[in-house]
Amino acid sequence: MNLGFIPPPTGTIRSWLDMRANEEGATISHYFPDAPPLTWTELREGAVKIAENLSGLGLSKGESVALIMPNSRQGILCLFGVLYGGFRTTIINLVAGAEAMGYALSHSDAVVVLVNDKHLSIWDEARATHEIRAQVLIVGADIIWPDGTQKRPLALIDAQDHALLMYTSGTTGRPKGVLHTHASLLAGGWTTAIAHQLSPMDRGLCVLPIYHINGLCVTIMGPLIAGGSVVVCDKFSASRFWATCSAYDITWFSVVPTIISHLLHGDIDPDAATKARIRFGRSASSALAIETQSAFEARFGIPIIETMGLTETAAQILSNPLPPGLRKIGSPGKAYGNEVTILGPNMAALPPNSEGEIAVRGPNVMLEYYMNPEATQKTFCEGGWLLTGDLGKIDADGYVFVTGRLKELIIKGGENIAPREVDEALYTHPDVVEAAAFARPCGTYGERVEAAVKLRKGATVKQQELIRLCQQKLGNFKCPDVVHILDDLPKGPSGKIQRLRLAEMTA
User: Fold this and answer.
1) 10 Å Cβ neighbour count for 135?
2) Contact of 203 with 228, CB cutoff 8 Å
3) Pairing outcome for strands 229-232 and 203-206
4) For residues 112 and 92, what is the distance between their CA atoms, to the nearest angstrom?
5) What is the pairing mode between strands 35-39 and 88-91?
6) Which helix (H) or strand (E) is 499 found in, with range?
7) Which one of 99, 114, 437, 500 is CB 3.0 to 4.6 Å from 422, fit for a cystine?
């Protein structure tokens, strides 16, 4: 199927799951290393049962059902069950902390909360922070339904109905609830499918949490649109990664830069058959250092496709082409399935190679921020463009180059310094596994540059060696005054390093 020449998907998650079950019912759709697989028929049957029981509890179309669920067989069944029923799926970030989780559960107007039986302590901590008026159902080997629950017919749903409510993991202020419709959620899977030419013959590897938009739309919605299957792991494990790829005949995977770095600095290599079978690895969520990408490809012989996406755009907005197409190292690529432009301070589109704010519009863009019209208004501008908050430029070939994040720019003596420049200089050292530059208030310059790194196990490199490296690569002005060597760097659920927390951690 040549997905590049078809329009965005129509219909709903329900209609697409029905289509897969009717056409490919006996084909396995989801594999699990620690549980039996699911065929498309089994997935549809499980989803229908959950949907009808939720309806039997008195829920109406569009009401919020929250999921406190890890990557698992039951997690996939619950996800599709809530979506199939036409309810608004509110996926709770399991590492967001009790306050943020409690806020999301309260703010989302959750009527029912499906809680994995191994995460009851998380639920108890979350509900202690906010008033949550929701019925709680425990999910173990099955869902424990209240006595007397009777299945009821499902309401009709359409493409513009609410489908997903996912809260951002911002480091400042309250999390914002990103609201997607069935149409935009499906389009998120479609942009992945057309960019990576996914087919029914492909089998992806999901090691990112499905409570993050990357794990959800790329590795779960992508195969729903393109066909094929996916192996859903509970989490990333460097020791098991290549063995899982081998055991399940993986043809592609989606990860984040920190995972690529950990695999690169690990001592396990994939076997020759696995190297030959994997068409590509996909990197998203934050910028991938050029040195890391080049070294990974040189060692493993697997091309890494750098991409870019947001929660607000159902993941992917940009991607590099697959080989033999031109991949521009250092760029997250070109637009697939949506439009991307660069806007100046007056919100007018800028010519090629001019720096401004990256903006996007298309079928994968969110409906709004739930119950937050002010934030919604600030994020959208004339013409339906969504402002990403990222700075960048587009070259003459349509490739976007991200130059910084508006909120993360280090302003030293009135000059803007993009943290990514410092990161990439540090990543050139063979012992640096993770790196992140950040701003520190300074009486002389307003802000100064500092950085934090995680080193390869057994490394003995000292701070001064890393500072001298940055001086050589960047000059004195952009060089960090201090490089903190930490056991680990703080990360969000997607694996993105949280720069704004580093200043607090190293004070």
Assistant:
1) 15
2) yes
3) parallel
4) 13
5) unpaired
6) helix 499-505
7) 437
Task: Give CB contacts under 8 A, 24+ apart, made by 114-121.
Answer: 114/65, 114/66, 114/67, 114/68, 114/69, 114/78, 114/82, 114/139, 114/143, 115/68, 115/69, 115/139, 116/68, 116/69, 116/70, 116/72, 116/74, 116/75, 116/140, 118/70, 119/68, 119/69, 119/70, 119/94
Residue that has been written with the tokens 């009790």 in this structure: 98
Angle between helices 98-107 and 120-127 (to 10 degrees): 70
Query: Do residues 201 and 326 touch, judged by C-beta distance below 8 A?
Result: no
In sequence order, the 6+-apart residues with CB closer than 8 A to the CB of 60 are: 155
Alpha-carbon gap, residue 311 to 180, rounded angstroms? 9
Measured distance CA(476)–CA(106) in Å, rounded:
49
The string of DSSP letters for 284-305 reads -SSPPPHHHHHHHHHHH---EE
Q: Encode pLDDT of 1-42 as tens digits.
A: 344 446 899 999 999 999 999 999 999 999 999 999 999 999
SS3 497: strand
β strands within 98-187, DSSP E: 110-116, 135-139, 162-167, 177-181
CATH homologous superfamily, domain 410-505: ANL, C-terminal domain (3.30.300.30)
The count of other CB atoms within 10 Å of the CB of residue 239 is 9
**Three-class SS of residue 231?**
strand
Cα-based angle 460, 464, 466 (whole degrees, multiple of 5): 75
Residues of the chain within CATH 3.40.50.12780 domain(s) are 3-27+38-182
Which CATH number is 3-27+38-182 given? 3.40.50.12780
- Strand order across the 432-442 sheet: 432-442, 446-455, 482-485
Q: What is the pLDDT averaged over residues 295-314? A: 96
What are the tens digits of pLDDT across the range 367-418?
999 999 999 999 999 999 999 988 999 999 999 998 877 777 787 876 778 8
Antiparallel, parallel or unpaired: β 334-335 and 339-343 = unpaired
Taking the C-alpha atoms of residue 430 and residue 469, their distance in angstroms, rounded to an integer, is 12
Considering the chain, tell me which residue range(s) the CATH 3.30.300.30 domain(s) occupy. Answer: 410-505
Distance CA 479, CA 467 (A): 7
Backbone angles phi, psi at 24, to 5 degrees: -135, 35
The tokens of 60 are what?
């109406």
